[in-house]
Specification:
The chain is of the alpha/beta class and 443 residues long. The chain contains 16 helices and 15 strands. The protein folds into two domains: 122 residues, Urease, subunit C, domain 1; 287 residues, Metal-dependent hydrolases (TIM Barrel, Alpha-Beta Barrel). Strand 2 and strand 3 form a beta hairpin. Helix 3 crosses helix 4, helix 5 packs parallel to helix 6 and helix 12 packs across helix 16. The mean pLDDT is 96. Bound molecules: zinc ion. Zinc ion binds next to strand 5.
């Protein structure tokens, strides 16, 4: 059934510079209806005046004073770390040991995983996130629970079994088969392929091959992951790289034959399109060029990087060499599910000018990184017959948020005084949180 929504509408031009690519209709009309596959997509979008006669027979909801914007795309977060958020620690490695691993072991249990999956997806939707690439844990129960719940709620979600066969407590490592002779490494790859075949392409779900990070995986496990990635080019790969200097040194000691920490992944066939690497902070230009050449992309996770004191993503470096990136909450190293908090933290990370060139990311560019830009980085931009999310151009999945710029006294006070689109978007980024999201619509 075709439906229409009248409101202010934010979307992004598909061509042009991300800094200036926002398209804003003060009084707009968004028309949504099924495509040939039955998925609800944007049929038309533009000014109400231009479209109203063409769609005069279509039932229209009118939301004066509101803004319709694309559903947010979170490129990297950890489903089993919701309860780890806000845990005090001396940086990444102690934080993993003292908080993260003890919580993740609970996800061996199906009931616990199911309850946590419901809460996790509630939080994503409450914060306006309609597409996410998430880590599960090293237990198949966690993967099944998250996929089941996402499918029921019609969230577009990619996840996968965490591969880690060493350098962590036994209860968060992959396990050997209880019957037969498969060791933990072999079993983790068999389980990954079985989960991939069960879930990838079911509704809006996708599988992601998920080596936690090189130090937690044996060479045999990384090799097996790379073989899966070659066998299934349409599935995603997700991991971490170059977050923290101690972690880099550890990775270099474990894989001394590779040119760099990032190059380790390339040596095992784990850099390609649809390969998403969280952080990418401590890179040299050869690493940046390797990202560009392979089509791998960065999930920039600024609240996590600030919280753990890991460093600052070098936007100027990424743009100079030309590899793709988008934004991520990195729950639970990250401190908020809210895309507004993540966009503001990205602005802080961009401004920092002591360890790298500092710059002011434009409000349009920040928003784009968490919507259309993130979708493009994930390969969900409508190319090669793939779905398109994170935008509201015709043909895109009709996932959107309805923003209320009067949601708090301060937002109302400030947004009444803005004089340009950049001023409006920046006020929402700096002052916004989940209260700004009046509703999240998955059509
Ligand atoms: Zn992470």
């Amino acid at each position: 059934m075709i439906k229409a929504y009248r409101s202010s509408i934010l979307r992004f031009a598909t061509q042009g510079v991300p800094r200036h690519c926002a398209v804003f209709e003060e009084d707009g009309l968004l028309v949504v209806g099924p495509n040939a596959q039955g998925q609800s997509v944007v049929q038309a979008v533009g000014s109400y005046r231009d479209l109203k006669d063409q769609f005069s027979g279509v039932a229209t909801e009118h939301w004066p004073g509101r803004i319709i914007a694309p559903g947010f795309v979170d490129m990297h977060l950890h489903f089993p770390q919701t309860n780890v958020m806000g845990s005090p620690a001396d940086g990444l490695l102690p934080w993993l040991e003292n908080y993260t691993f003890p919580e993740e072991k609970r996800f061996a249990e199906a009931d616990y995983s199911a309850r946590e999956a419901t809460f996790f997806i509630d939080e994503l939707l409450r914060n306006g996130v309609t597409t996410a690439l998430a880590f599960a844990s090293s237990h198949t129960a966690s993967v099944n629970a998250l996929f089941s719940e996402a499918h029921a709620r019609r969230l577009r979600l990619m996840t996968g079994l965490v591969l880690m066969d060493r350098n962590a407590p036994a209860n968060v490592l992959n396990r050997a088969a209880t019957q037969g002779v498969k060791d933990a490494t072999e079993q983790s790859l068999i389980d990954s392929e079985a989960l991939l075949q069960k879930w990838h392409g079911t509704g809006r779900l996708g599988y992601a091959i998920t080596p936690r990070f090189a130090p937690s995986c044996s060479a045999a496990q990384l090799r097996g992951a790379g073989e899966l990635a070659a066998k299934y080019p349409e599935v995603w790969i997700q991991s971490h790289v170059a977050e923290n200097k101690d972690e880099i040194q550890w990775a270099r000691e474990l894989f001394p034959q590779s040119r760099s920490y990032l190059a380790t992944y390339d040596d095992f066939g784990l850099l390609r399109e649809r390969a998403i690497y969280a952080h990418c902070i401590h890179f040299d230009d050869d690493d940046r060029a390797l990202m560009r050449a392979t089509g791998a992309v960065a999930a920039v996770s600024p609240t996590s990087n600030l919280f753990l004191g890991s460093g600052f993503f070098d936007y100027a470096g990424a743009d100079r060499i030309g590899f793709n990136y988008g934004l991520a909450s990195d729950i639970g190293g990250g401190t908020s599910f809210s895309p507004f908090h993540t966009m503001l933290a990205a602005y802080y990370a961009g401004r920092e000018g002591q360890t790298k060139p500092g710059l002011s990311l434009s409000p349009q560019h920040l928003w784009w990184q968490h919507t259309a830009g993130a979708a493009q980085a994930l390969g969900l931009d409508g190319q090669k017959g793939r779905p398109s999310v994170g935008n509201l151009q015709p043909g895109c999945d009709a996932d959107f948020v309805v923003l209320n710029p009067q949601a708090t006294p301060l937002l109302a006070h400030k947004t009444a005084r803005v004089n340009s689109l950049d001023e409006l978007l920046f006020a929402l980024i700096v002052l916004g949180d989940d209260r700004l999201i009046e509703k999240t619509v998955i059509s």
